[in-house]
Amino acid sequence: MKALKLLIMAFGVPLLTLAQERDSVVMNSDMHEVTVYGRQRDEIVPSQRLSGVRLESLRSQSVADALRYFSGVQIKDYGGVGGLKTVDVRSMGTNHMGVFYDGIQLGNAQNGLVDLGRFSMENIEEIALYNGQKAQIFQPARDFGTSGSVYIRTRRPRFEEGRNYNLRVVLKGGSFGLISPTVVWEQRWNRRISTSLSADYTGADGKYRFRYRRVLPSGTVAWDTTAVRQNGDLRSFRIEGAVFGNTDDGTWNAKVYYYDSNRGIPGAIVNNVWRFAQRQWDRNFFAQGSWTKHVSERYKFQLSGKYAHDWMRYLNPDETTMLIDNRFRQDELYLSTAHNIELLPHWELNVSADYQYNALDANLVNFVHPSRHTLLVAFATQYQWRRFRAMASLLGTNVWDRTTVAQSRVRDALSRWTPAVYISYNPIRDNRDLSLRFFYKKIFRLPTFNDLYYTEVGNTSLKPENTQQLDLGLIYQHDWMRGVFRHVEFKADGYYNRVDNKIIAVPRGSGQYRWMMMNVGKVRILGVETTAQTVMRWCRDWSLVLCANYTYQSAQDRTDPSDDDPYYGTYGGQIAYIPWHSGSATGNLRWKGLSLNYAFVYVGERYHASSNIRENYEQPWYTHDLSLGYTLDRGVCPGIGKWFRSMTFTLECNNVFDQQYDVVPNYPMPGRNWRGSIRVEL
Amino acid sequence: MKKVRVWFIVCVILVLMVSCRQEVIVWPTESESAGKIVQGPVTGFYLLNEGNMGSNKCTLDFYDYTSATYTRNIYGNANPDVVKELGDVGNDLQVYGSRLWAVINCSNKVEVMDAATARRIGQVEIPNCRYVAFDGPYAYITSYAGPVQIDDNYKQLGYVARVDTATLQVTGTCLVGYQPDGIAIMDGYAYVCNSGGYMVNNYERTVSVVNLSSMTEERRIPVAVNLQYVVADRFGQLWVSSRGDYYDMSAALYWIDRPGSVAAVNELRTPAGGHVAASAMTLCGDSLYIVGSEFNYVTQETTTTYGIVNVRTHSLVSTKFITDGTDSRIRRPYSVAVNPENGQILVADARDYVNPGRLYCFSPEGVRLWDVRTGDIPAHFVFMRR
Predict the structure, then answer these.
(1) Which residue is closest to A619 within chain B, CA to CA?
(2) With a CB-CB cutoff of 8 Å, which residues 564-583 of chain A face chain B?
(3) ipTM for the complex?
(4) Cα B43 to Cα A446, B15, B48, B117, distances in angstroms
(5) pTM
(6) pLDDT-based confidence at B2, cuts 50/70/90?
């Protein structure tokens, strides 16, 4: 019916010439997009990724929402459109996640948190999650430096034959007073250069009803109250421009990004307090670029760089509490170079060197205006021998901090080497369906500027927080060219992580500043992650994609051996907010232009403190989301092409059963909510 | 088809492993026995657990001497119909007549309960309320939330609110210094510790003297930076604690002689001439029991001290009232109280502020008698009498 066009979405040229790489493929009508399941060619250990049809069908509002469907990921969500969402992979802590946007890490030297809400899903092509690091060697040194990484890849312009531009207009609206128009314009200027420009606005009043209810042990209602969440409004504007180029022997791209937002911060709903006035303004700018050149068959290099400027204002105008009007400015400069040499046909070596400069300015009392120079050097090598592939890397980190106040303390300079080893093996001869994998990684996170220098809370004697990860897993996948089942995939991983010198807030006295940061925490995490996925097709037009994953985690607090009471002691207790059981299931059914999607997310019982007592217990929560989409295009209605190329209508209902739940206690989440969108491709 | 069966089994296992939501029960009380039965005029004590900010976990515990049982979370059980329980961050607890007054800082209210049953009688809405003291028919409550001054530097005076204990209405206010904390009443005057805690580097240094008949601030007595607590003794002296500035100025303890007239301010020193930190204190007879937990930003260390001060002789008579070594188990002593009848000493350990604290009871000689788990950040005691 349609001309099949396969677009392999792997960046760059495959490093290894592997015989008959097989990827199963699902076509998305004639949008000329495909979803590649399974491994990317140059990765030793496959990642979890969402792209194409699956990403689109999940209709996520933000990157954080999309990450819920990955196994091993815990999202701490404070609720609402503009509410803070933080991501934690395999219970090692939010600050251990690196978020990479088009290949370059998004930094926040101040507090280590990256707001995943500031990227438009309309402009994102793929989200991938890697445990440890991206298991390939040709990358900047910084990519070797996190315990877990999320790679967000924006849409690369693609053009139908005979067309030099794409124009897409999307309008979304729905519950919480949400209105969000997006425009994406992609243009091919010549054979070598194309550009894309996208802009969007999001406005929402953030109001939603929530309900708290308690019963007596007898079952009669003690109290039952419903209120409207206030001060969760958001207004944001984002504009992003990119240039993509290719030369005979390489590729280059450059990107400029600006985001401006003004949001209310909905606080904790506590007795007698139902509304808040705190606000936050953010302005984020960055410009980045990278250039890859294949100098010869055996040598290639990559240069990349970035400048970022972030401005943030936090205002607490509430006269019943301390008035706070803080402004923070951050600058980041980043330069990287990576060199890859093929020593022997199956043996490659990579050397990367990065330099990074960060500075923080704030209008805080006694503030020391810290800046940081980081020099990273990474050596990595990759080797393949028959059905066995291995990769090893060694990262050297050198960090110097400076402060403007001469007599203030500065963290001592740090110099450290950390290794990682990745191995994969295909046990069955001439068949790559089954593969076993293993990795070990030792890495650390540096204390953030807030940890070190925040007035009255910071502690300049902090050491880095260390993690060690050990993972053993297998993946089985098989593809069929005929029949109902076209693809089946099963993944299972067992892992053991250690977090030492964990930086946690420790009480130090009474008064306003009663906390300080200390390296006291120890966590031991034992986990199992499984994913099962299948793609079915029948009767020509029908397709069904099913995916389920389940995670078990035992994340024990090993901080204080003296606090070892079997019931209420913190030693051996499950750490805060980590459920033992969690999982998700998604289904995507398509027939011609119609698609029906279902998503289920489950987060099991957990505690909000390491003392696993009844008072700290948090209920499981689970949501069911449904959406229905209809695409009108030439395949469905041939005459339509005169006016536009395609038009997609979507109606979503999230939290269908209106579950009233908190992810973080006293931060109520929205109940049933609706969203609709129209997307026109011109 | 084999694969379908595998899928089915996997699904069934998953469903069996996970559990579903249930109705949430009002925080249940929990009792455990602790210590031995003591008969006497003091029948028990309440302990208010502050709960970490934003957690809404301020809870009320009760120890009953007549049955030697410790009961946690009695508020929720006594008042199951109060939405969101007692509130967020309990800051003070006092008993006056037959009523129990709990100052709930981040819930912007003072909860008034029947002292015998902990049943709620009503609440007084006072934003950012801190401490309470009583005189005649009135309660006097300090609050940080006075009018905001619009000038180059944000400044917000605090005030003392006068509340009619019969009607629970605010009948008058009096502006005092910045961020007023502890309050004590003596001879028709309220003495209020001004902290200036919101103004790092510009801490307040004074005690405000408020004439209760006119509700006006008459004078200020300069003492030291960042004042916290004030206790009046039977000799007409005020004992005032300063938190210091966490840098060069240490936490210290002062006494003010004749605060109503001459107001001579003296610092209590150790025999070696050092400062005495008092982050919590309680007066029993002529003995002022103090617990000091002082953090210094320069050395980045927390020093914990215990002591007994004789308020008559103005001397530190002991630097150790726990004699059996239990103090090594107490991570963060947060509060101290002494049973006025039998001299037993209660020390509350707030530990890490986010997990349950612990309450230790010592004999007057300093030997541990019992200890028990409390709520989060155990902090404020009141004894109940027959």
Answers:
(1) B21
(2) 568, 570, 576, 581, 583
(3) 0.91
(4) 54, 52, 17, 13
(5) 0.90
(6) low
